[in-house]
Amino acid sequence: MMMPPRASLKQRQAEKAKRQREYRRRQKDARRPSRDDIAATTFLLIVQETARVGNWSTFNKILDLVTARLVERGFDKVATIRAIDDLVEKYEIGWKFQRKPDFEDEAEA
Hints:
This protein is mainly α. It has helices at about 10-30, 35-55, 55-70, 75-90, 100-109. α3 packs antiparallel against α4 (about 75-90). The chain starts with 8 loop residues before the first helix and ends with a helix. The mean pLDDT is about 85.
């Protein structure tokens, strides 16, 4: 029995893109937060709580571990520290991460 010919790379990529669009639509319809949504919200709350109680030494130890992990993954150490410091500074002064207008529009309906 002969195997059918394998789809071309372009066809496989198109099918993968279609599956990803469908997956994202299902996630959005279910209003299920992504890994990034959870991480961003967690980080924001940790910064806010640390600022509230003033326990910066523990926070900085954790950020040292985060920095080390990111550097292990290939990110530049100085750029990583700058990026984290920038986020912490913004969160401390009340900055919120990007809104998701699609969710807000649906929630109002």
